[in-house]
Amino acid sequence: MAETGRIRVAKDKAELVKALISADGAMGPFQTFADAIVFAAALGAKHNKRVPLGEISKREPSPIGQEVFVSRGYDLVIKLLAITETKDIKIISSDEYKHENERLRVLEEYANGGLEILQQELRGAVDYSERVLLLLSMERDNQELKEDEFDLSKFLNIP
After folding, report:
1. Number of independent structural domains in the chain
2. Which InterPro entries does this UniProt record tie to the protein (predicted)?
């Protein structure tokens, strides 16, 4: 179960998440861990891939406070994923910790599923930004966006 108010990353995906970030000289497609995690969660939800975390990363990225996601405007995405998954509007209630923990667990597991997809898509790539952009371009070319799908391209850190 998610720590109250913290979003965790599976240990086996920690290196990938770090490689997706544009920091410390790296040129990843995302500015923050929160950006990468929400992108991966949206990708996981799009492909209906929800995977339990297993062992949790204790080092970078360590569990990230929910306030980071809220400050970046991702609280709505977290709530939408939870409602879609549980089919229960009560999941967005802020009254009970169990609802908060369930929302975060849904985000974590969809992100973990999305990171598995990204691991496969990015295998052998030198430039993750280019490969993620190519992935998004192929998605757009293969099918036009429907009203009920996420536009994943808004998460990219491309000038």
Report:
1. 1
2. DNA_S_mod_dnd_assoc_4 (IPR023983)
